[in-house]
Amino acid sequence: MNIGILGLGTVGGGVVNVLNKNKNEIYRRSGVNIKVTYAAVRDINQARICPTGNLKLTQDPFAIVNNTDIDIVLELMGGTGLAKELVEAAIANGKHVITANKALIATHGNELLSLAKDNNVHLLFEAAVAGGIPILKSLEQGLSANKIEMVAGIINGTGNFILTEMRDKGRDFSDVLKEAQALGYAESDPTFDVEGIDAAHKLAILASIAFGCELQFDKVSTEGISKIEGEDVAFATELGYSIKHLGIAKQIDGKTQMRVHPTLIPKTHLLANVDGVMNAVLIKGNAVGPTLYYGAGAGDEATASAVIADLVDIIKDTVSDDILGWQSFETMPHQAEDDIESIFYLRLLATDKPGVLADITSIFAEHNISVEAVIQKKIDAQNNAHIAIITNSVKTVEMNTAVNEIQKNDFIQETVKIIHVETLD
After folding, report:
1. Following CA atoms 99, 103, 106, 112 in sequence, which dihedral angle do they give, to the nearest 10 degrees?
2. Which end of the chain offers a freer environment for a tag, N or C, measured as fewer CB atoms within 10 Å?
3. What is the model's pTM?
4. Residues 160, 247: one domain?
5. 309 lies in a domain?
6. Catalytic site residue 202?
7. Residues in contact with 218: Cβ distance below 8 Å, sequence separation at least 6, in sequence order
8. C-beta of residue 420 within 8 angstroms of C-beta of residue 384
9. What are phi and psi of 179, to 5 degrees?
10. CATH no. for residue 370?
């Protein structure tokens, strides 16, 4: 079984190393000697993390996808432009394709999977979500007897590292971000990680497999963590919560909701104790109940583990012709963000004078919102105080309307902070 790799960086090099290190185990499970024979790279002379003596290197990636000696193409270069062209060419040439490219699958997966089906080949992407955690196989195979009710996960290690440091060491967001960049956890432009785009790509894929619907990345409501401040982390802790950057997908009354945002979750919950760069995904099935999957969400050998698992599935011919399960479904309706019900955390900077809390709760009462918990702390000599509030569960539109009314009062000194709260029951 001859393999061609597009991209021999962190993940591509990891695949070569793991195939070499565990060749006996992989042969035992697959019954085939898997050989990486060709690799396309940007610079042939660049130092690699893997041995290249037995590889034919080329700077022309189309030489890989058009090579009749190659059975399976691994797209490990990233991006959605050239990568898409190469995947299309490989599929058209009758080659199976495995990718770790979550952006490609989230944005173009519907058409690429249809193309693969038309050409009687497979397009697999276990490594695109949560690195080495076999989360897509768990949804597709291990939980196939269940109607999936909820998927909620920490699926970006950079954001989780930042929030962990802010909570445990009282550091500011900008300070931890610089360290994350120095450690290689965050790119020089960290937008995809800290603003939730990377997690939204992954959530779209998870939701599609969980609910049997088409990929709908454009329907994922996305908010990053760049506006989380130390006060929020401290208040959350005092109120019995931890702030995590979650991707959440639910199916309610035949409609899907998909959202990525900072979330307060009870600090006793297992997800609240997933720290550093680690990933974890909670899946709730109507038969099995909640199950939790934890592990490395990135890294050379962890991600290579997922790539090679897809390789073995193709070799053993254990892959469904319809990995998403949406061929027999219409596009599933999406629940409007305004209709999503949630508990909310609010932080207000307000003038510390009699009647402020009464005015706030009066506005809440007009919108059928009750207060479950409140903390007030004076913060400066100008007689200003931070007020932290946990509400009952309420529709997002009602909460936003109430907050807009509160914001108009002259005792409010800055924009009211709103963060979702999830019990993950």
Report:
1. -50
2. C
3. 0.94
4. yes
5. no
6. yes
7. none
8. no
9. -65, -40
10. 3.30.70.260
Is 401 inside a domain boundary? yes
How many folded domains does the chain comprise?
A: 3
State residue 1's pLDDT score. Answer: 78
Amino acid at 110: N
Q: What pLDDT band is residue 220 in, cutting at 50, 70 and 90? A: very high
Range in 166-170, 211-215, 401-405 with the lowest mean pLDDT: 211-215
Q: Any bridge partners for residue 72, and if so which?
A: 3, 96
Question: Is residue 279 located within the same domain as residue 191?
Answer: yes
Which contiguous run of DSSP H or E holds residue 224? Answer: none
Q: Which of 102, 202, 219, 250 is catalytic?
A: 202
Q: Are 240 and 224 contained in the same domain?
A: yes
- Please answer whether residues 35 and 2 qualify as being in contact, where contact means their C-beta atoms are separated by less than 8 angstroms: yes
pLDDT-based confidence at residue 316 (cuts at 50, 70, 90):
confident
In a domain, 316, yes or no: no
The helix, strand and coil proportions of the chain, stated in percent and rounded to the nearest 5, come to 40, 25, 35
Domain contains 371: yes
Mark whether 86 and 54 lie in a shared domain.
yes
CA 323 to each of CA 29, 219, 257, 371: distance values in angstroms, whole numbers, following the listed order: 21, 21, 21, 44
Confidence band, pLDDT 50/70/90 cuts, at residue 386? very high
Tokens of 242: 């931890």
Start-to-end CA span in the chain (Å): 46
DSSP 372-408: EEEEEEE-STTSEEEEEEEE--EEHHHHHHHHHHHHT
Which residue is listed with tokens 């639910």?
Answer: 250
Report the C-alpha gap between 35 and 16 in whole angstroms: 9
Q: How far apart are CA 148 and CA 162, in angstroms?
A: 30
- Domain of 74 in residue numbering reads as 2-128
* Residue 167 and residue 282 in one domain: yes
